[in-house]
């Protein structure tokens, strides 16, 4: 235990010389002098960094005790035979049983606390969006909570390679679906799948949630920094899983309203919801979808 104070002092001194990226454990989503990407990003980073500092301290103490024991209890010159094979030290045994238990319970408590806060839904979010994962793209429905028939939607297609025949080619950026969010507004995203299980992951937001067939998951947060952020499916879902990409554009309220108006002007009005799911068992009564894969282009599906 005598090693704990100097280790703590060393950690503090080391952290004072770190830049912003190092202070956040090399996690994405942080830019020096700017707001985190969401109201929950800092919380996730603090849990991550705090856990690693704790584990680092445990590791240093453990290795120090191992090295100390190897030196102090090494065989001396002239010693023969084997040392005593059984020797009890009750205080020591209680220590190495209780301390790990406290560490595990502590990490669990902090994780449960932060997860509970992050998973708490807003009573009345400013914006509600349905995000549908499908093989291998995304559909976004910007809900009008007062009248579903007045909602607008954006139909996505899977990422298209810039050069289909080339190795390690990039993707056509304009073909990647983009989810628009207004900055500093509370958002609730309803996560659903049209077919198999997917996972909705916005890398710089430091969070992801599964899309599970037959149920709806919710993600509530407030985006706090304007920018465009990469997203992808984080659940292996089939042949073109690697092309299941999307972007998240956090914009001003005016730009968000302009995007909704543009979708309305294109005729993308209505609830483009579960009616177009691939799984017949999860479809609403009267669905026109016969279980065939969702169309590969907006024009094909807009005419359904």
Question: How does this model look, in words?
Answer:
By secondary structure, the protein is an alpha+beta fold. It folds into two domains: 4-75 and 85-119, no CATH class; 127-279 and 296-302, Immunoglobulin-like. 32% of the residues lie in helices and 19% in strands. The chain contains six helices and ten strands. A five-stranded mixed beta sheet has the order 3-2-1-5-8. Strand 6 (198-202) and strand 7 form a beta hairpin. The longest helix is centred in the first third of the chain and has 32 residues, at 41-72. The radius of gyration is 26 Å and the shape is elongated. It starts with a helix and ends with a helix. The relative contact order is 0.13.
List keywords for this structure.
single chain; alpha+beta; 2 domains; 5-stranded mixed beta sheet; 6 helices; elongated
The count of DSSP E runs of length 2 or more, i.e. the number of strands, is 10
Query: How many helical stretches?
Result: 6
Helices and strands, in N-to-C order? HHHHEEEEEEEEEEHH
Which structural class do you get from the secondary structure elements? alpha+beta
Query: What radius of gyration results from the CA coordinates?
Result: 26 Å
The whole-number mean of residue pLDDT values reads 82
- The spatial strand order of the largest sheet comes to 3-2-1-5-8
CATH architecture of the largest domain: Sandwich
Distance between the termini: 69 Å
Q: Report helical residue fraction.
A: 25-40%
State the CATH topology of the largest domain. Immunoglobulin-like
Within CATH, the superfamily of the largest domain carries the name Cupredoxins -  blue copper proteins
């Amino acid at each position: 235990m005598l090693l704990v104070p100097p280790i703590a002092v060393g950690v503090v001194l080391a952290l004072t010389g770190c830049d912003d990226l190092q202070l956040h454990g090399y996690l994405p989503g942080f830019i020096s002098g700017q707001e985190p990407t969401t109201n929950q990003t800092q919380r996730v980073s603090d849990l991550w960094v705090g856990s690693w500092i704790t584990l680092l301290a445990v590791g240093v103490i453990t290795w120090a005790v191992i090295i100390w024991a190897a030196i102090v209890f090494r065989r001396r010159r002239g010693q023969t035979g084997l040392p005593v094979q059984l020797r009890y030290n009750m205080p020591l045994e209680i220590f190495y049983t209780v301390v790990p238990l406290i560490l595990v319970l502590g990490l669990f408590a902090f994780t449960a606390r932060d997860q509970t806060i992050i998973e708490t839904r807003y009573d009345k979010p400013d914006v509600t969006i349905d995000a549908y994962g499908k093989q291998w793209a995304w559909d976004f429905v910007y809900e009008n909570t007062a009248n579903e028939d007045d909602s607008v939607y954006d139909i996505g297609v899977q990422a298209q390679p810039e050069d289909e025949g080339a190795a390690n080619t990039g993707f056509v950026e304009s073909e990647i679906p983009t989810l628009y969010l207004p900055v500093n507004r509370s958002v609730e995203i309803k996560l659903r799948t049209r077919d198999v299980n997917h996972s909705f992951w916005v890398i710089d937001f430091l969070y992801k949630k599964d899309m599970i067939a037959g149920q709806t998951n919710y993600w509530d947060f407030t985006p706090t920094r304007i920018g465009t952020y990469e997203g992808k499916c984080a659940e292996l879902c089939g042949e073109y899983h690697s092309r299941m990409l999307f972007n998240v554009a956090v914009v001003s309220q005016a730009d968000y309203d302009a995007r909704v108006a543009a979708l309305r002007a294109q005729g993308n009005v209505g609830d483009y919801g579960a009616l177009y799911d691939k799984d017949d068992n999860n479809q609403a009564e009267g669905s026109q979808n016969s279980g065939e894969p969702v169309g590969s282009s907006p024009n094909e599906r807009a005419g359904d």
